[in-house]
Design goal:
There is one protein chain. The chain is an alpha/beta fold. It has a domain at about 15-105: MoaB/Mog-like domain (Molybdenum Cofactor Biosythetic Enzyme, Chain A). It has helices spanning about 5-10, 35-45, 60-70, 90-100, 105-120, 145-170; strands at about 15-25, 50-55, 75-80, 100-105, 130-135, 135-140. It has a six-stranded mixed beta sheet with strand order 2-1-3-6-5-4, with helices on both faces. β5 (about 130-135) and β6 (about 135-140) form a beta hairpin. α1 packs across α6 (about 145-170), α2 (about 35-45) crosses α6 (about 145-170) and α5 (about 105-120) runs antiparallel to α6 (about 145-170). It is globular and about 50 Å long. The two termini are about 25 Å apart.
Length: about 170
């Protein structure tokens, strides 16, 4: 017999249309290794990429992009990387948090725990990874390093993306 979680995952969509957003003042299409990694991992797991954007670390631009994504029927989930640290220019978390309808605090908590135990040790306290929902959309914001992206994608986002969408859609069908 399946557990409720296993049953939910069976009922979950196997492909989710994602918007990849790299938040950076310096990265370009050629140097965006983390955004490229997100694309590669999504496609390897059967998800699609609706678009891939690079935006500057500016609150108003990130907020506007989130509002645009929220109303775009081609986007089901937004995956941001970059701008989640504690430097004065890091405003991704503030822009995402202000737009969220519901926050998934476990994403950031578990990401920091995994970063601490598997990757960077005590420096994990400086990560402000965040996730939640904006209407019918899932939003995940992770640090911009390729190691952090790989960790967040393989351990948290990819195993649960379809399940998250199932939960979002069950109230809006």
């Amino acid at each position: 017999m399946l557990t409720p979680t296993e049953q939910h995952k069976r009922e979950a969509p196997s492909s989710v249309a994602c918007l990849i957003v790299t938040v950076s003042d310096t990265r370009t299409t050629e140097t965006d290794k983390s955004g490229t990694l997100i694309r590669q991992l999504l496609e390897e797991h059967g998800h699609s990429v609706a678009a891939h954007r690079i935006v500057p670390d500016e609150y108003e631009i990130i907020a506007a992009m989130l509002q645009e994504a929220a109303s775009d029927p081609q986007v089901e989930a937004v995956l941001l990387n970059g701008g989640t640290g504690i430097a004065s220019r890091d405003v991704t978390v503030e822009a995402v948090r202000a737009a969220l309808h519901k926050e998934l605090p476990g994403f950031g908590e578990i990401f920091r725990y995994l970063s601490f135990t598997e990757d960077i040790g005590s420096a994990a306290i400086m990560s402000r990874a965040i996730a939640g929902t904006i209407g019918h959309k899932a939003v995940f914001a992770m640090p911009g390093s390729t190691g952090a992206v790989r960790l967040a994608m393989t351990k948290l986002i990819l195993p649960e993306l379809g399940h998250v969408m199932r939960e979002i859609y069950k109230d809006h069908s």
